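Tutorial handout. Part one gives the primary structure; part two gives the three-dimensional structure as tokens.
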Amino acid sequence: MKIIETNKTIMNRFVTFINTASENLAEELISPKAIFHVPGQTDPMKGPEGYLTIINMMRSGFPDIQWTLEDIVVESDKIAARFTMRGTHQGNFFGVPPTGKSISVQAINFYYLSEGQIIGEHGQPDFLGLLQQIGAVPTN
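Part two.
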């Protein structure tokens, strides 16, 4: 039971990390050997620098983006998490110029931990919903 509570604490600190892009939290929470599978990219991102790259990609299009942890399931060193991402489209995002539109998009991610750090993630954000909300693709 203790590992479950510890991993919930790590996940809450991770949410603080992704909402602030803190390099210190990245170093604390993410293993240098971590691998992150990103939808739309052939090669995974690696380590704290890789995750900061992912966050900065999102922040380039949505500088005010924030993630809210809606649900979490912890089983030993595996975590399933459902997030809502909210932000305002104020910069180029995948070639789409800023629209000023607000987004609210769900994401379901699986995390793998070892020795108190995240060592992997498989993420499934609703990019179609995001692109629809900024007018990049039709809704019907």
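Part three, for discussion. The first helix runs from residue 2 to 20. Helices lie at 2-20, 23-29, 47-61, 127-133.
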